[in-house]
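Lecture notes, part 5. Sequence design as translation. It can be helpful to think of inverse folding as translation between two languages: the language of shapes and the language of residues. The source text, in structure tokens, appears below.
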């Protein structure tokens, strides 16, 4: 059983050029919005831009001289890979990382950058679970050392250092709520164990995206459930099956689990850029988006949100904005069947309000048909404007179909 001494020992392994003690930052923006005292544990400020460096470095630096001569093997689609890469680079250890072929190119490039000549990346299969299985097989063949993302004591001790820092940094206030994102269950398991041992009144809440609810479904059935398909928008927390060890701990210590819609994650990712100048990846913004789900519980309370990372490809910003606007009813897509006559487009424009803007228009003219279809994207500043617009469509007998939330939209626009 791990103790405080193990956690303190883990911190002694940390080199400030590799692992930082990140700040616990009071968020005036979020505190005012939710009428609470909200603090952000800024793990996005680590050198590898995520909290995964803590246990990777603690585990690898703790290897024996004989183990360091072997290859180190890991499986990851996300930030764990970069933590292992930097650790092996600093400690001059050769390693192999198995990553799904669906891993964003930005994360693959960053992993190579942190590892330099000490890394060998193998892109295999379509998801983490399959990459993990291949890494275990390779590890057995090569007699290599496997760095599990959350399932060994050295890894656990590295994870606990986050909670230790938070409690040291906010020693003069009692924390009412800890909001933590969940991937394989390591972070939430060990934070909940450590926090509950020192502060019984603190509630630990965990959150998953709607598109990857493996822990949520398992928690509701009280047994491990695998899901068939995951939405990789928040790729840092997209897993099909919970880990048995962490799942058992979660059942004992965590007070509640909820799902957060991807569009809500997208909204808060953009809000943090606009209002706080903090760039996060979708998984990193999960605990902030989760504030919306518990806003009635946290009023006038002290809340800590863990910002797990910002390994984010900025070319994805249009996708993020699209999700946020679409689900806030600030952007909609329509199939409009225009009468094939002069002035039809001019009539259509008269139905729009002064703040309605056409941001996409694709028209196919068919000479043998009385009507020609067009795909029209409209953006506005208030969702109420779409109610007025649709009323104008109906009043003027416009032949339209809103395809924003349909599979037709996915085929034609995305």
């Amino acid at each position: 059983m791990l103790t405080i001494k193990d956690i303190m020992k883990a911190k002694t392994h940390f080199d400030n050029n590799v692992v930082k003690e990140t700040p616990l930052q009071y968020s005036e923006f979020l505190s005012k919005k939710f009428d609470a005292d909200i603090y952000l544990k800024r793990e996005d400020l680590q050198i590898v831009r995520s909290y995964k460096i803590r246990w990777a470095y603690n585990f690898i630096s703790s290897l024996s001289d004989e183990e360091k001569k072997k290859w180190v093997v890991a499986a990851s689609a996300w930030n764990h890979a970069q933590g292992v890469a930097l650790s092996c680079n600093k400690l001059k250890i050769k390693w192999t990382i198995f990553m799904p072929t669906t891993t964003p190119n930005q994360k693959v490039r960053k992993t190579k950058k942190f590892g330099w000549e000490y890394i060998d990346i193998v892109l295999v299969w379509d998801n983490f679970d399959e990459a993990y299985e291949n890494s275990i097989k390779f590890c057995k063949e090569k007699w290599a050392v496997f760095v599990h993302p959350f399932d060994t004591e050295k890894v656990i001790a590295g994870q606990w250092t986050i909670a230790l820092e938070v409690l040291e940094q906010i020693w003069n206030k009692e924390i009412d709520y800890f909001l933590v994102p969940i991937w394989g269950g390591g972070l939430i398991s060990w934070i909940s164990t450590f926090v509950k041992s020192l502060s019984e009144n603190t509630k630990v809440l965990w959150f998953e995206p709607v598109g990857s609810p493996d822990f949520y479904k398992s928690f509701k059935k009280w047994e491990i459930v695998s899901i068939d398909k995951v939405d990789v928008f928040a790729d840092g927390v997209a897993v099909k099956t919970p880990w048995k060890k962490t799942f058992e701990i979660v059942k004992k210590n965590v007070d509640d689990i909820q799902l957060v819609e991807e569009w809500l994650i997208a909204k808060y990712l953009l809000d943090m850029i606009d209002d706080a100048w903090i760039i996060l990846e979708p998984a990193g913004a999960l605990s902030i988006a989760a504030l919306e789900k518990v806003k009635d519980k946290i009023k006038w309370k002290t809340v800590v949100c863990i910002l797990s990372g910002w390994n984010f490809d900025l070319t994805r910003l249009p996708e993020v904005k699209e999700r946020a606007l679409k689900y806030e009813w600030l952007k909609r897509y329509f199939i409009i069947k225009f009468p094939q006559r002069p002035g039809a487009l001019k009539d259509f424009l008269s139905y729009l309000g002064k703040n309605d803007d056409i941001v996409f228009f694709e028209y196919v003219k068919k000479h043998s048909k009385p009507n020609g279809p067009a795909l029209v994207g409209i953006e506005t500043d208030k969702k109420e404007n779409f109610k007025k617009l649709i009323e104008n469509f109906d009043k003027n007998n416009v032949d339209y179909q809103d395809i924003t939330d349909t599979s037709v939209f996915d085929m034609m626009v995305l």
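The translated text above is only one of many valid answers, since several sequences can fold into similar shapes. The first strand starts at residue 24 and ends at 26.
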